[in-house]
Here is the input.
Amino acid sequence: MQAGSDMRGRKHPVVEAIEDEVRAMTEDYGYELVAIKYGGPKRNPSLTIMIDKEGGVTADDCARMSKRLGLLMDVIDPIPTSYQLAVSSPGVERPLVRIEDFERFAGREAAIRFFGEDDRPRTVTGELRGVRDGRIALLADAEELLIPEDQVESAHLTFNWDDSAVDPGEAL
Here is the structure.
């Protein structure tokens, strides 16, 4: 499972062309490469690179890495047209892109989109329980599901906005 692909392993050719170099550069500067996304209109596509670090990523971190990664993209030149480069944090609903992410974030709420035995897509939200024998364990509706990694299309942490609401009497 790599950044820039869905869990089933599909990657855009642009992502394949830059992933190793982007990962090396982000790691050299102390960041984790979370995901690379490429797409949008053919005349002005976008390249989004999500980074993280312990304690979280700031706007200054993103600005610094945007400059460095922009220079790297100028050297690699993977996109024949003009494009928009964005470097961002993964946010509170961080994508889970590597099998290790499901272990790392065990105990947290997540949404997983996968293909069931009937090969129809299904999305389930629940508490991550880690990985067992290549299957992702998720507690949903008091039932533990074991989802084979190769059936997962996408997954991300979920954030409960109701639990984080500000008390109306509290001063901002």
Observations:
- The radius of gyration is 18 Å.
